[in-house]
Amino acid sequence: MNLTMGTFYALIGAALAVIVSGIGSAIGVGRAGQASSALLSKQPDKFGTTMILQVMPSTQGLYGFVVAFMMLIKLQAFGDILGLTDAQGWAMFAYCMPIAIVGLVSAIMQGNVAIGCINLVGKQENQIGHAIPMLVLVEIFAIFAFIVSILGVMLLGLE
């Protein structure tokens, strides 16, 4: 095992990618779940529709997990872990931050939009086709952050 401070910084970045985006997803899904439960207490037939809307904020946590997993592969953490310089470690850390920070905020905001969408379909079920694009608009920013993080992690030279 070749654990340097640079490797440590990279691993902290990977951990934050999972933890911070996961916290955002948990908050967003939890809030949407509360709205779903309230609606389902009066209209239990809308379970499938509300589940689709509730699950959307969970993707940010998944993106953070994928970035962290790809970082671990890049570091060869499942074998003899690479020893990184401080600069390389900080670069890997920095590439994890887009999905960590944007994942946190967009998951919470997407949860708020999901609450509005759940209320919308509670009143007019045929509006699900309008509700989903509202959620996708928030998702786009998480996808941008995911792409920046994953490309940064995968393309950074560690020779």
Features:
single chain; 159 residues; mainly alpha; 5 helices; 80% helix
User: How big is the Rg?
Assistant: 19 Å
Helix percentage = over 70%
Distance between the terminal alpha carbons, to the nearest Å?
A: 17 Å
Overall shape: it is elongated
The helix count comes to 5
- Given the helix and strand composition, which structural class is it? mainly alpha
**Uncertain runs:** none
Question: How confident overall, as mean pLDDT?
Answer: 93
Strand content range: under 5%
Question: What sequence of helices (H) and strands (E) makes up the elements?
Answer: HHHHH
Largest beta-sheet characterization? none
Number of strands: 0
How does this model look, in words?
It is a single chain. With 159 residues, this protein is an all-alpha fold. It is 80% helix and 0% strand. The protein contains five helices and no strands. Helix 3 packs antiparallel against helix 4 and helix 4 runs antiparallel to helix 5. The protein is elongated, with a radius of gyration of 19 Å. The two termini are 17 Å apart.
Write the layout of secondary structure elements.
Blueprint: H1 5-40, H2 47-55, H3 59-74, H4 86-123, H5 128-155
Helix pairs in contact: 1-2, 1-3, 1-4, 2-4, 3-4, 3-5, 4-5
